[in-house]
Amino acid sequence: MSFNEPAAGGRAPSRLFLTGGSGYVGRNLIRRLVADGVQVVALARSAAAVETVRDLGAQPFEGDLFDPRLAQAMAGCDALVHAAAAADTDHGAGVEARLERINVEGTRAVLAAAKVAGVSRSVLISTESVLLDGAPLVGATEDHAYPARPAGAYSKSKAQAERLALAMSAPGFEVMAVRPRFVWGRDDTTALPQLAEAVRSGAFAWIDGGRYRTSTTHVANLCEGVVLALRNGAGGQAYFITDGEPAEFRAFATRLLATQGLTAPDKTVPRDLLKTIATIGDALAAISGGRIKGPLSRQVYATSAVEVTVSIAKARAALGYAPVVSREHGLAELAG
């Protein structure tokens, strides 16, 4: 096989430790794993998070990524999913420091604890953003090089986290990464609420008409990819997980908003203007140490203003992955 590992039908975990369990992806992972009969221990940073993961059927462990009891909490777990991350898309020194601590050092701490605890297989929830630099990303595969100049602090920190995680992989301690793009679907607390708020506030505009393509990942498809990576993935490897064929951004966003009874305006802004604004904004933030910030960062521009499409050929061949929820079904679920 050209992708290192065939789909091998490996053993599902019996007990799994999850970080970020009260977040959007984490909540859906708990539902899926519990339904599969997996015992889930979920890291929870607050009383509210403890209640959330417990209500979903997981056993909460109250603490954070740097808790010295983490290895003890993972005892008896044969798998780890590290879903916790900071997703700041702003710019400035303070943002970079926060992302470095949570995304990079937090990943290092969690994986070190997992190794001590004897966890044998781990999956990092990564992102296509590790490859973004502001230029279009078209049909990218997993061997696409990390950019010399990442789009922003978020892309930089997630790439660093992914690199260190995959480098830690070893026989008996296999670490994989899954890379979704534009996660959406049931229980969404990220993409759809942000789009809806922009429309309601009058701040929404299509970038150059919105006719460029994007890959998307229904949250149930992401969960399927994580489960298959745990079973069949090869240590040290990354896998893109999406809904399959890309969609036109405008067409998909229009239908996504329609599930909430919203209609996007026809207003459009030139891409070149936004790119200039983002570049100047990042420069001002760098010069001022984050005290002066523009209305748009290069990170946001790279994520939302150009085509970003990726291939799932590797996940299909190596993991046996196929989307379990179509866009049509996912949109109907949201509308219902």
Automatic annotation (TrEMBL):
MF-aspect GO terms: aldehyde dehydrogenase (NAD+) activity; oxidoreductase activity, acting on the CH-OH group of donors, NAD or NADP as acceptor
GO biological process, one term: steroid biosynthetic process
Residue ranges occupied by any 3-beta hydroxysteroid dehydrogenase/isomerase domain in the UniProt entry: 18-267
Cellular component GO terms, alphabetical: cytoplasm
Domain of life: Bacteria
One Pfam family it belongs to: 3Beta_HSD
Name of this chain's protein: Epimerase
Biological source species: Caulobacter zeae
